[in-house]
Structure formats: structure tokens, C-alpha cells
Design a protein that fits this description.
The chain contains 6 helices and 2 strands. Strands 1-2 form a two-stranded antiparallel sheet. A hairpin with a 2-residue loop joins strand 1 and strand 2. The radius of gyration is 24 Å and the shape is elongated. The protein has one domain. By secondary structure, the protein is mostly helical. 77% of the residues lie in helices and 2% in strands.
Length: 197
Amino acid sequence: MLGAALTYLFSSLAIKAVGAAAESVIDDVRAQFRENPGIMAGTSKPDYGRCVSIVTGAALKKMILPGLLVVSLPLAVGLIFRNFSETFQASIVANTPTIHGHPVNLSGAEAVAALLMVGTISGILLAMLMNNGGGAWDNAKKFIESGAYGGKRSEAHKAAVVGDTVGDPFKDTAGPSLHVLIKLLSTITLVLAPLFV
């Protein structure tokens, strides 16, 4: 359950980060229009660097929490199950592994393995859904803009623009980020595996 929830929480944080960055850019663009009326008149150029700085800063800042989540969850699950599960010793009770005659508690390792497996399965499925869904919304908008269903400025086009607004963070941010989540999750799990035995 935690592995599946991780992918959805990670995706929601990534999508919220896109929304927050977009709001910051909109505020800055409006401020530039107020500060420099020549932008709308075409006599002066806007300060593009300010928008780029906002977007790159937000991209770095807003991905700290999702990154910490991916690193800390396997660590927390492995240590909690290892330290607070005394009844479960191994999958095969008859052949319980021992070190110096003492049974080895494998519940932490098995719990993290389950987290990794379910997180990977859920992440791959969710990434495919987001990548394909976002692309479909984008293509639907382009299809309507080509003249179908009333073309531009029609009710269908307005709906397609809303769909594309949701689809862009799906296909450009959350979907590709899930591939990184899956790789990072497996790397963290393998690196920290000795802590869970």
C-alpha cells in the first residue's frame, strides 16, 4: 500500500510544483507589464531572465520534498519493520537463517522489497497513464485547432485547452519524474539493504 501511495503522492507534489511555478511566472509577467508599459507597445523588451530564474529556482526548490520522500520512505519502512517486528524471522520458518546462532530478522528487508516491487509496478503504470493521457489531451487540442469540432474559439476548443492545461504537467513533469522515482527507489533500497537485515 505504501509503495502504491508513494507514486501518487510523488506525482501530486510534482504537479503542484508546476502550478506554483506557473503562478509565480504569471505574477512576474504582470509585474513587468506594470513596470514597463513599453512591453505592450512593442517599444521595449521584457526581462526574460526573471522568468527563467523563477522557473529554475522553483524547479529546484519544489522537488526537495518529493526527493526526501523517496529517500526516507524505504529507510523508514525497513528500519521500522526490522526493529519492531520480532515474531517474523524469515519466509521459511524451518530454515531460519542465523548469525552466530542468533536468528536473523528479515522482516525489514522483505518489507522494503515489497515496497520496491509495488512502487515499481504502480510507478510504471501511472507513468504510462500520465505520459499517454497528457499526450492525448495535447493532440486533442491540436486536432480541434486544425478545424475539427468548430475549431479555435469554439466550446470544444475551450474544453481542450483546459484538458491540455492538465495534460502538460502530466506528460512533461509527473510522468517522466516517475521514471526517476523508480530508479531512485531501487538504488536507495539496494544501497541501504544492509541496514534492514
